[in-house]
Design a protein that fits this description.
By secondary structure, this protein is an alpha/beta fold. Helices cover 32% and strands 23% of the residues. The chain has a nine-stranded mixed β-sheet. Strands 3-6 form a two-stranded antiparallel ribbon. Strand 1 and strand 2 form a beta hairpin. The longest helix has 13 residues, at 141-153. The structure holds iron/sulfur cluster (2 copies). One iron/sulfur cluster binds next to helix 1.
Length: 301
């Protein structure tokens, strides 16, 4: 049975495609965007998440950890060493306060589809369906392909929320089973893209061209990150590119700070702890700029 790593299944989602949807979040991503709002999605493996506010101080986890990765600091807090932790899960088994958890669990295609199928009546009524997001769903191509095929066999509308960073052959395998692509375009200059995400944007732009050339339904999504993606030159390049390859719809997604807490829970430094969201004025200007390329633009998607 094909299986993969899923880190969340969100029901009744209204922002990941048309109608009421179930969004399945697959773990693993080839990019390391400094503004990532799902840092728990990046690693392909399950990761330890900490909820110190639930901790009752019983120290069962200290005794259970075979690596000695958990220690009590002088100020009384429990510290878990990211270097020593092997993600064995022993500490989770003994923590009855549920102060420790894993982001990501192994699921089979059948298990995911059983979850998805529960809300089939809502999809039908609302014109909704199933969205695969991440992380980057294309990073688990066999699992994703079987999930998409299972949705197609059940007549469920499919949306793929992707950063577009994948081999062309991978995209070609899955695209016949995708009804709508939500495709991220972040930074058009390659050097700036590498600095902000760790990878070149060449395969991303190639894949977007490919989808457009084959007539797929695509909504471009632009995260508006002050100092990284929001400058006029970048917005104009995105508008010109999308328009030139025949796309018509763009969603602009303003940066938010909801992920700050996630970095703490993952025991990881936040690369941009002080970044503030874009102003309403700047968002309106960006919308106006993109509309000047004959694109339909929504704020927030
Ligand atoms: S087992 Fe859970 S509740 Fe007990 S000390 Fe460890 S984290 Fe806290
Ligand atoms: S998951 Fe990490 S912290 Fe928990 S017991 Fe295993 S090695 Fe120790």
């Amino acid at each position: 049975m094909t299986h993969g790593i899923v880190f969340d299944i969100r029901k009744f989602s209204l922002h990941d495609g048309p109608g009421i949807r179930t969004t399945v979040f697959l773990k693993g991503c080839g990019l390391r965007c400094v503004w990532c709002h799902n840092p728990e999605s990046q690693s392909p493996r399950p990761e330890l998440i900490l909820y110190p506010e639930r901790c009752i101080g019983c120290e069962a986890c200290l005794e259970a950890c075979p690596e000695g990765a958990i220690q009590r600091a002088e100020d009384g807090r429990l510290i878990t060493s990211a270097e020593r932790c092997t993600r064995c899960g022993e500490c989770l088994d003994v923590c009855y306060a549920e102060a420790r958890a894993f982001a990501g669990e192994t699921m089979t295609v059948e298990q995911v589809m059983a979850e998805v199928q529960r809300d089939a009546a809502f999809y039908e009524e609302s014109g909704g369906g199933v969205t695969f997001s991440g992380g980057e769903p294309l990073a688990q191509p066999d699992f994703l392909l079987e999930l998409l095929q299972a949705c197609r066999a059940r007549g469920l509308h499919t949306t793929l929320d992707t950063c577009g960073y994948a081999a062309e052959a991978t995209l070609n395998r899955v695209r016949p089973f995708v009804d709508l692509f939500l495709f991220d375009l972040k930074v058009m200059d390659d050097d700036r893209h590498r600095a902000a995400t760790g990878v070149s944007n060449a395969p991303i732009q190639r894949n977007l061209r490919l989808l457009a050339a084959h007539g797929h339904r695509v909504i471009v999504r632009v995260p508006i990150i002050p100092g990284y993606t929001d400058d006029e030159a970048n917005i104009r390049q995105i508008g010109a590119f999308a328009s030139k390859i025949g796309l018509t719809q763009v969603d602009i997604l303003p940066y938010h700070r909801l992920a700050n807490d996630k970095y703490t829970r993952l025991n990881r430094p936040n690369p941009l702890p002080d970044l503030t969201p874009p102003t309403e004025t700047r968002l309106a200007e960006i919308k106006h700029t993109l509309e000047s390329y004959s694109l339909q633009v929504r704020v927030g998607g």
